[in-house]
Inverse folding.
């Protein structure tokens, strides 16, 4: 059961860090770096399609990305399913499809659909009425049947966010995920944890106060068990790609630009060519000596 793998990791880690990945290459690199779990980040998957994180890609495209991540890595995956792509029935089917794809957990937010990334817009995002949002959580929990954990994300703020978190736990959420704008300090995070009685999930989104202030010690103190690194990797990749393309477009010699990269042989080893060659030979007929 996928949920059991993640549950065991939560038992043995004070805080479980999960980097945001979006394809097979980023998943493979994260596993080789030594992480124990992956976050299939909606922000990063959107970016990989050349789109903003505004739920403009489909559930099918998201599921396809998760399957590619699953194929490239053996680590447990925590998948972003945005708003569940519709009402409670849509959320139920979405959660079930992702669970069947082998994810260990999904996280779903209480925004209206289509969602808007809260760190990309200046004004507060619109959230569903609490009863409707809780109904979607219950539908997703019923569909998962314990095969994958359910993380309920709230994009509300302050006392309303805590009230919502309590309702989502009653509806079947296993963990609660406030976003960076939900609370203004660690005291409010601690109060949320005390109110809901289940572990919290924090998204340490790059350039937010949460990334800056949420040390491992602080997260343990306020009840955070999972820490996503949802944007750091895709920002690093985009920066490197943009800088290389700009240098090449301005006429800098390719060998000069390439000096900043890993060597081709190192990349071949990283991507698994030696193992692939070995496997291919296992299926070839033995050489017959005359």
């Amino acid at each position: 059961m996928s949920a059991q793998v993640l549950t065991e990791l939560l038992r043995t880690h004070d805080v479980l860090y999960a980097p945001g990945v979006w394809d097979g290459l980023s998943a493979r690199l994260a596993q080789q770096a030594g992480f124990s779990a992956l976050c299939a980040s909606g922000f990063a998957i959107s970016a990989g399609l050349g789109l903003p994180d505004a739920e403009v890609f489909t559930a099918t495209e998201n599921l396809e990305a998760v399957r590619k991540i699953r194929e490239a890595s053996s680590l447990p995956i925590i998948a972003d399913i945005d708003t569940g792509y519709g009402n409670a029935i849509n959320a139920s089917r979405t959660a079930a499809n992702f669970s069947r794809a082998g994810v260990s957990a999904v996280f779903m937010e209480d925004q209206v659909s289509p969602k808007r990334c809260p760190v990309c817009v200046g004004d507060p995002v619109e959230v569903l009425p609490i009863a409707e949002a809780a109904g979607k959580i219950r539908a997703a929990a019923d569909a998962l049947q314990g095969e994958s954990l359910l993380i309920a994300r709230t994009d509300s703020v302050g006392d309303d966010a805590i009230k919502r978190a309590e309702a989502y736990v009653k509806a079947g959420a296993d963990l609660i995920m406030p976003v960076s704008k939900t609370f203004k300090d660690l005291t409010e995070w601690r109060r949320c944890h005390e109110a809901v009685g289940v572990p919290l999930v924090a998204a340490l989104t790059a350039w937010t106060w949460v990334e800056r202030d949420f040390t491992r010690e602080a997260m343990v103190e306020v009840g955070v068990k999972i820490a996503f690194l949802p944007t750091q990797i895709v920002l690093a990749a985009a920066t490197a790609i943009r800088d290389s393309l700009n240098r090449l477009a301005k006429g800098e010699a390719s060998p000069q630009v390439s000096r900043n990269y890993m060597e081709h042989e190192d990349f071949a080893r990283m991507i698994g060519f030696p193992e692939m060659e070995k496997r291919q030979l296992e299926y070839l007929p033995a050489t017959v000596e005359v």
Summary: The first strand starts at residue 16 and ends at 21.
